[in-house]
Design a protein that fits this description.
With 223 residues, this protein is α+β, with helices and mostly antiparallel strands. Helix content is 52%, strand content 18%. It starts with a strand and ends in a 10-residue tail after the last helix.
Length: 223
């Protein structure tokens, strides 16, 4: 997957979001990044480990997408421009209505749109939108890439690290649980094989002895 998590927010208040299925929850990371975006109109990319957070902030609303760093910047910014257009086309997108919309107030209505758009850009991105995004990137030279470490306080960096550590711990627990299950299954398989082997050996011994002593195994008994 190229695009992992996307959202639309009013300032730092998330109105709707969507994350592709993943073992890691990126909500805390995106919320932390969102709280650091300045209120003025801007476009910027934040780098965090192997991920990039691209955003467009305009008119008091923020359109943000988290993506793998390998995907570059054209596709994410094309996605964001498309996301912004679809959001502004909403019947309820007037400033008066959205100014009082609570957190996740558009989750039920706009999250499916975000999900559909992410699926499109992850599978068959429209080339004309990407070309348009490239042209805008060429014209706007102040869309910088900034490392997340430069905008986070020490406590926030620790929180992100703890969040990542917790995720790794959960993955390690799941791995250990899976390993125990695999060992248990292997033990039962080996036990069944051993039991079958013993039965076969005893049956062969019976056949050998039966050749000399008869089926009743009465060796040395006078007839």
């Amino acid at each position: 997957m190229s695009l992992l998590h996307a959202l639309v927010a009013r300032g730092s208040v998330v109105l709707a979001e969507h994350q592709v299925p993943s073992q890691q929850d990126f909500s805390h990371a995106t919320q932390t990044i969102l709280s650091k975006i300045p209120p003025n109109d801007s476009k910027l990319t934040y780098a965090w480990e192997q991920y990039l957070f691209h955003y467009i902030s305009e008119g008091g609303f923020v359109y943000l997408v988290m993506a793998d760093d390998s995907v570059g910047r054209k596709l994410p910014f094309a996605f964001l421009a498309d996301l912004q257009r679809k959001f502004l086309e909403l019947p309820s997108s007037s400033a008066a209505v959205l100014s009082s919309t609570p957190a996740y107030g558009l989750q039920g209505t706009f999250s499916p749109t975000i999900a559909s758009l992410m699926h499109t850009y992850n599978t068959a991105p429209p080339q004309d939108e990407i070309a348009r995004a490239q042209a805008e990137l060429n014209q706007v030279k102040d869309i910088m890439v900034q490392n997340v470490e430069q905008i986070l306080s020490r406590g926030e960096r620790i929180e992100l690290l703890v969040d990542k550590t917790d995720t790794m711990a959960h993955q390690a627990t799941a791995f250990r649980r899976g390993a125990r299950t695999a060992r248990r299954q292997m033990w039962w398989k080996n036990s069944k094989t051993l039991a079958l082997t013993i039965v076969v050996v005893l049956f062969l011994l019976y056949l050998i002895i039966a050749q000399f002593c008869g089926a009743a195994l009465q060796c040395g008994v006078a007839s």
